[in-house]
Amino acid sequence: MNPVDPKSVRKSRLFLLLIGLVFAAPMIVAGLLTLAGWQPGAKGTGQPITPQRNFITEQLRVRMADGSDWAWRDSEPRMTLVALAGPDCAARCLDALTAMAKARVMLNRNQSRLRLLYLGTPPSDAAARQAMVTYWSTGTDLDDTLASFRPQAPDSVSAILVESNGTALSFYPAGFDAAGLLRDLRKVIK
Fold it and tell me: Are 144 and 91 part of one and the same domain?
């Protein structure tokens, strides 16, 4: 047998310790940052809805243009983006609605997991109204339950992102960033 060189044993142990330290260092740093109160920001663009609301529990009734009632819980798990138009939906309002529809299209293969619901008076322009039918389901909030989320400024629109179980997740006030909305949608729709 060959005698074991104590110097090489110390060297091997040091390498093993360094390898362990490389893997443990990120966990130690994360633990220290958490203890110090710092949390990485994974904030979305939308504002959280507090207190949390569930539209199924509240029995929020939406009457569709065809006379049927909107089912918050769908046959398959799909989220709903609810657009709430302010008075006189015109050019800016239509631009925001188009941006929301584009965000849905940009979800690519997951776009079927998001439903678009427009609540309010449809635009007065017949061509714009017809174009909306392609992407949007239109209806009316019968009890005006969502009035606090509806913008008061003319030609504006706000939005609410609703989970497939009817829980309202985020509120996007009038003038929201459509690119931020798309980022939020990509986070929750996978």
Answer: yes
